[in-house]
Design a protein that fits this description.
The protein is mostly helical and about 250 residues long. It contains nine helices and five strands. It has a single domain, classed as Rhopdopsin 7-helix transmembrane proteins, CATH 1.20.1070. It is globular and about 65 Å long.
Length: about 250
């Protein structure tokens, strides 16, 4: 029997999440904003962008309220259209943008790790590697990664008539949602024939591989820079107070 319970639970969780995240990130934003630039240098603006993006990410999740649905041959991330009166096409864009925001957070995390790596291993070059002139490079890299998440979600994992037919019964039986009440992005990996044989589709595997590659590359870069920074802190002859300050950020 279908139920709206999990959708209502998601709404409650998003309400709690946006309240806690927005409040804490807003306080952090104000504290960083009042800190003199001489104390943190360019790192101040990087942390400001992180705090602002944290609020933006929470707001995006609250608007989208993403949920997951699974079937034997596919899965999808969806949003209810009735929350804001969206059309199915706009709803698909909204869910894809939610994936983009996630990619944006990961990309900015890599930039933060790179900044700290340079600050520890080659602090004299910070004034040349993180300036107004070099900022377009980081902006392009961050938004290229962000766009990849969104485009892969929309074009390779977007809705199709075949996915609609596969998912419609599941939406009705699980969430009491008719086809016009939700939008989704997802992958249908194979069909089952009458003899229960699998006929695979290549497009969802390509989309999943692209997302997995970007995710793995982002985490690998962050992990590599983090380990290099940590090892450098152990080897450098810096003060104990400076080491403790840097170690607290891991």
């Amino acid at each position: 029997m279908c139920s709206h319970f999990w959708l209502q639970l998601t709404f409650l969780a998003e309400c709690i999440g946006i309240s806690l995240s927005s409040t804490s990130n807003f306080i952090l934003f104000l504290m960083i904003l009042e800190t003199p630039r001489k104390k943190f240098g360019s790192y101040k603006y990087l942390m400001l962008s992180f705090a602002a993006l944290g609020i933006f990410y929470s707001c995006g999740n609250f608007i989208t309220k993403p949920n997951v649905i699974l079937t034997k041959t596919s899965f999808a991330v969806f949003t209810e259209l009735g929350n804001y009166g969206l059309t199915k096409g706009i709803g698909t864009i909204v869910v894809s943008c939610s994936a983009s925001i996630y990619g944006l957070m990961l990309s900015l995390l890599c930039v933060q790790f790179y900044y700290r790596f340079i600050a520890v291993t080659s602090p004299m070059t910070l004034s040349t590697k993180f300036t107004l002139k070099t900022s377009p490079i980081y902006i392009i890299l961050v938004f290229s990664n962000t766009a990849t998440w969104g485009l892969v979600s929309y074009y390779l994992n977007g809705p199709t008539p075949e996915k609609d037919r596969e998912l419609a019964p599941a939406f009705i039986s699980l969430y009491c949602l008719a086809p016009g009440e939700y939008s989704y992005i997802g992958a249908k990996f194979f069909n089952l024939t009458e003899t229960n044989e699998r006929v695979y589709h290549f497009q969802p595997f390509i989309g999943t591989a692209c997302s997995a590659f970007v995710l793995l590359a982002t985490f690998s870069i962050a992990a590599y820079l983090g380990m290099r920074t940590y090892r450098s802190l152990k080897n450098l002859g810096t003060s104990q107070a400076h080491k403790e300050l840097q170690n607290q950020l891991f």
